[in-house]
C-alpha cells in the first residue's frame, strides 16, 4: 500500500533522513521505533509533504505521491494523527470531528461520528466541551477520532502514547488494535514506547540517526537482544 523508497529529507543543510526504505502492506500495523531525534516524525511528515523529500519516492497504492500537496493526500485516503495531538483547542469535540470530515462524503458523517463515539465513549460525554479543556488522554482520543473521520485507508499515527499515563496508553493501543482488526484499516505507527508498539505491530522498523538499521516482525524485534537493551529498559 505504502512504499517509501530511498527517501532523503533535509532541514536546511542538515540531512534528517538518509535513504530510508519502508514498506507498509494493506491490512498491516507497521511500527517505526527509535530514540528521540532519530527522524521518525520527519519520515511521517515527509510522507505528508512537509518537508518534501529531496530524493527518493513515496508510492501510495501504485501512485507516486512524493510531490502531491497535503490536502490531495487526504482525498486519496491518507490521514494523520500528529505528534502532540494538535487538536483545535477553542473548538468543541464535535467541531473538531467535523473538521476531520471536511473532505469526506457528508452522507457518511453520522455513521462515522457514531463509530468514533463507540470507540471512544469519553468523547461522546465531552462532545460539547472545548477540546483545549480535555485531559491529555482525551485529546489523544480526539486526535485519532478526527483522523478517522476522514475515512482513510492508511492511518498515520505519530507518538500516540506521548506524555500519557500507563492506563491511558493501554486504552489507546487497544483502540489502534480495534481499528486495524474491525475496520480493516492499515496503520503506520511511529512510537517511542517500543514495548507496546512491537507487541501491537505485525512488522517493525528501527531508525537510528535517519537510517533504518533493523527490520522484522514485531515479535522478532521484541525478542532481539539489541532492541531489548536499547529500547526496553535493558531487556526488562
What does this molecule look like?
The chain has 236 residues and is an alpha/beta fold. The chain has helices at residues 40-47, 70-76, 93-100, 109-119, 121-125, 136-148, 166-183, 194-200, 218-223, 225-231, and strands at 2-11, 14-24, 29-33, 55-60, 63-64, 78-81, 154-158, 186-190, 203-208, 211-217. The strands form two sheets. Strands 6-7-8-3-9-10 form a six-stranded mixed sheet, with helices on both faces. A four-stranded antiparallel sheet has the order 2-1-4-5, covered by helices on one side. A hairpin with a 2-residue loop joins β1 (2-11) and β2. α3 (93-100) runs parallel beside α6 (136-148). The protein is globular and about 45 Å long. The mean pLDDT is 93. This is Branched-chain amino acid transport system ATP-binding protein. Residues 2-234 form the ABC transporter domain. Belongs to the ABC transporter superfamily. It holds the Pfam family ABC_tran.
Question: What's the short version?
Answer:
Helix content is 38%, strand content 26%. It is of the alpha/beta class and 236 residues long.
Keywords:
4-stranded antiparallel beta sheet; 6-stranded mixed beta sheet; 236 residues; alpha/beta; globular; 10 helices
**Rg over CA atoms:** 17 Å
Helix/strand/pairing category = alpha/beta
Helix count equals: 10
The portion of residues forming beta strands comes to: 25-35%
Uncertain spans: none
Keywords: Amino-acid transport, ATP-binding, Nucleotide-binding, Transport
GO molecular function: ATP binding; ATP hydrolysis activity; branched-chain amino acid transmembrane transporter activity
Protein name: Branched-chain amino acid transport system ATP-binding protein
Pfam families: ABC_tran
